[in-house]
Amino acid sequence: MAVTADWLYDAIAKRQGVLVKLANISWLxxxxxxxxxxxxxxxxxxxxxxxxxxxxxRSGNPLTPLDTYxxxxxxxxxxxxxxxxxxxxxxxxxHDVGAFTRLSSGDRAELSRMVEMPTxxxxxxxxxxxxxxxxxxxxxxxxxxxxxxxxxxxxxxxxAYQVVGHFHPKGKxxxxxxxxxxxxxxxxxxxxxMPSFGQYTGGLDVSDAAITRHAPKAGRQCFxxxxxxxxxxxxxxxxx
Length: 240
Prior knowledge:
Number of domains: 1
Oligomer: single chain
CATH class: Alpha Beta
Structural class: alpha/beta
Shape: globular
Radius of gyration: 17 Å
Largest sheet: 9 strands, mixed
CATH topology: Purple Acid Phosphatase, chain A, domain 2
Number of helices: 6
CATH architecture: 4-Layer Sandwich
């Protein structure tokens, strides 16, 4: 494992990550939108929504069709940084069932190289990509387990502990009288909701009922990502 304890503590000191526990397992929630579990040498990322721009272009949306390239480049750099043995994509990796066929030859080659970087790669199926073509490299699963934590795209009632995606949580926080808005992690005693990683992904405010239903405000922590730093929403945050 490339990531050492000193590296983790340095990242936390620089606000590049925050260390939390879920099911008594430590996770580093990184300010670039991935969660790393040192004990299992596993990196989680959620909601890439590859080829969202090409999908929306069909209805005349003028988004620049470079979202897949940008998303793959960002994720490749993080995998190179953490060097995990295992990467798990927590669903909605592709924006629709035809997204893989629309990948450019360059993006398809980059995707294949990225998937080969760790020893194991797992695609969790989501509501946008419930069935992935056989020629996409990596394992395809409805769910998987890290320790005693279920990794699944949407929350399931029978899971004691789980990590999910799907909601694309966002929030805001005041820092030195400036209002920062960004994507968020949402953590309770038994649930971690991942932020969306994709370049063009929207989201729900953390106060939305769809999120508070699973993560009530009274029993959760929200961590906002902004320009390479991470901030806690439920306290008044000041730069140091």
